[in-house]
Amino acid sequence: MIGIGAAATAARRHARWFVRDLFPNRPVVREVQGVRMVLPWSHRLPDYAPDGSPYGQNLVRLAALLAESAPPLTVLDVGANVGDSALQILHAADGQVLCVEADKAYLDFLRRNVGDDPRITVVEGLLVVDDDASAGSTAVRTGGTTRFVEGGGSDAMPTVSAAALRARYPSYDDLRLVKSDTDGYDVDLVPAIAEAWSDRRPVLFLEYDPHLTRLAGSDPLGLWPRLTALGYHHVAVWDNGGEPLGQTTTAQIADQAKALDALRPRRRKRVYWDVAVVHADDAAGRQAIEALVPEALPV
């Protein structure tokens, strides 16, 4: 049962969100976990990531550890949004980031935030599995995140496949870390990226949300055998607040992930995992996730 104090806090938060959502794209300057950036007023990031919060820091810490073993770090950020992940990674590690974003509303803020930083390259387009994918899509925005549904619109963007992306940006050929947050499309996109850079075996960091994956028309459990076939084995799991839950393998996680479906009916908010997936031959990658998530994921 939710206590009276918690309920009151939640009510005040939602009241603030209601007001901010009336003027969603009003620019505001915020410092989030040590990084100053321009955000749309409706963006939830400052609410989810106050000072001291672990939210989003799993990715940043993972990037820093990978950069220690082989600097500079080369990162692909799919669903770059306003550039918050790229900015925080480069605040913590020496490297470069290829940001892919297809939402025109967030692209404006992404451009403001990265400016002329030579370490960041922005790709304005929608990443797709292959070059035959349909270009018709419409952005659906909610509280600072975007998913895309079929159907053309004024905000439809050009598409680019993972293989074409690698060919167009050879300076990112030595890819070490992939971050994907595409509200349900990660299950299809991440294996395509891993295949396009299969000779580099990058660490894969993604948002694993079975509910949004099904809304996108895919089977969330289909991710794991595809990554296993590409040689990926080790998996670190965090909850959606950035707290470590444990380590497992691509062979075991399908059964363990059923817990997410069991949790969702009891909660009104989104329930998902952050996961980092490491290739079986990537010793440095495995060492990094073991440092961050030392315990085994409960069965």
UniProtKB/TrEMBL annotation:
Top-rank taxon, per record: Bacteria
InterPro entries, per the entry: FkbM_mtfrase, SAM-dependent_MTases_sf
Metal-binding as UniProt keyword: no
Keywords: Methyltransferase, Transferase
Organism of provenance: Nocardioides vastitatis
Protein name (record): FkbM family methyltransferase
GO molecular function: methyltransferase activity
GO process annotations (BP): methylation
Record's keyword annotation contains Methyltransferase: yes
